[in-house]
Amino acid sequence: MQQLIHRIWYHHHWAKWLLLPLSWLFGLVAMLRRNLFRLGVKSAHTVPVPVIVVGNITAGGSGKTPTVIYLIELLRQQGYTPGVISRGYGVDIQDCQVVYTGAKASDVGDEPAMIVARTQVPMVVGPKRVAAANKLLAQFDVDVIISDDGLQHYPLARDIEIALVDGERRYGNRCLIPAGPLREGLWRLNSVDFVINNGGPVHHGEVLMSLTPAPLMPVTNSLVEPLTEGQPLVAMAAIGNPQRFFNTLTQLGYQLARTVEFNDHHVFSASELHALSHDNPLVMTEKDAVKCRDFAQSHWWYLPVNAKLTPEFDHAFLSQLKQVAQTKKGLSHGI
C-alpha cells in the first residue's frame, strides 16, 4: 500500500485524479479548523516557556527525529534544559505518559523511544499536546519545549516553527492528502521561521541539513556476530522514505543482497524478521531497532545517523530563542 501511495504522490500516477475530490474536502476541513483559531473562536494555549515545533507540511518522513535530537544537544550546549512532547504515533495512548529510558516502542511509539534512548531527555507523549506540555512542565524542570511534529496542532501556541522538507522528493505532486502528500498548502511555509532541507539541493531561503552515518551498531546487547568485509546484507526499513536509507548503505560500500520496505511505524514480529535474516545479516534504521530489541538476533545491526546543520542556522535559531525566552520571563529587549 505504501508503495502505491508513493507512486501516486511522487510519480504522477493516474489515481491522483480519482482522489482529488477527497483532497478538496480535506483542505476545506483544515481551512475551517485553522480559521477557528485565527478568528479567536478557539484559543491556543500558551505555556510559560518557549515552544519549538519541528514538523512538516507533508506526510511521511523528512528528518524530524534527527533534527529534534540535534536541537536537544544544541540547547544543552547553550545551558538550556529542553524537554520533548510527541503524539506517539503507531500506538494507542489514551492519556499522557512519561517516556523513561528503556521504554518499549510498543508502549510509547518508535520515535519517542528512540529519542529518549539516545538523549535521556525528559519526554511526555499523548494525543493532546497541550496536556503533554503541561505534564512535562509539572514533572520536570525544563525551560524549553520541543514538539516532535505538531505543525498542524494549533491548540498549542508555539514560538518557533521549523518545517522539514525532503530535498529529493520535496512536495511531490503538490496536492493535499490523499491525492498528494501535503497536509497544508505550500503557502504555509511563508509563516514558519525556518525551512530545513534534508539532503539538498537547497532552494532559496532553506537551510541545508545533512545526515551523517555512524558505524553499524548491534541491535542486541548480548553476544554479536561480527560482520566480515564484503558480506552481503539484507536491509529493511519502516520509515517514510526507505529508499534514502538503502541508498545510504550502498554509498557506504555495503553490499545489499535484498531490500525490504515496510509501512512507516510498522509493528514487527519476530517471525517475519527471523525469516528475512535467515541467510544474511540484517541491517535496519535506528528507529526500527528500538522496536526489535526484545527479540533481536546476534547478526542484526542498525545504522545510527546524526544531523548536521549550518553555523548560520545555529546562530539565527539561538538568537530568536533568546528573545522569546526573555519575553516569556517578562523582560523586554533583554533589559
Name the features.
single chain, 335 residues, Rossmann fold, 5-stranded mixed β-sheet, 33% helix
Describe the protein's architecture and organization.
By secondary structure, the protein is of the alpha/beta class. The protein has 2 domains: 2-210 and 308-328, P-loop containing nucleotide triphosphate hydrolases (Rossmann fold); 215-303. The chain has 10 helices and 14 strands. The protein has a 9-stranded mixed sheet, sandwiched between helices. Strands 9-13-12-10-11 form a 5-stranded mixed sheet. Strand 12 (282-285), helix 9 and strand 13 form a beta-alpha-beta unit. Helix 3 packs parallel to helix 5 (110-119).
Task: Quickly give the structural class.
Answer: alpha/beta
- What's the number of helices? 10
Tell me the CATH architecture of the largest domain. 3-Layer(aba) Sandwich
Envelope shape? globular
SS elements, strand count: 14
Biggest sheet record: 9 strands, mixed
Low-confidence stretches: none
Question: How many whole angstroms does the radius of gyration measure?
Answer: 20 Å
Provide mean pLDDT, rounded.
Answer: 90
CATH topology of the largest domain, which one?
Rossmann fold
User: Number of domains in the coordinates?
Assistant: 2
How far the N terminus sits from the C terminus, by CA atoms, comes to 56 Å
* Percent strand: 15-25%
Level-1 CATH class name of the largest domain? Alpha Beta
Topology record:
Blueprint (H helix, E strand, L loop, with lengths): L1 H9 L5 H23 L12 E5 L8 H14 L4 E5 L10 E2 L6 H4 L1 H10 L3 E3 L3 H11 L4 E5 L11 E7 L27 E5 L7 E8 L3 E2 L14 E5 L4 H10 L4 E6 L8 H7 L5 E4 H4 L10 E4 L1 E4 L2 H18 L7
Parallel strand pairs: 1-5, 1-6, 2-4, 2-5, 6-7, 7-8, 10-11, 10-12, 12-13
Antiparallel strand pairs: 3-4, 8-14, 9-13
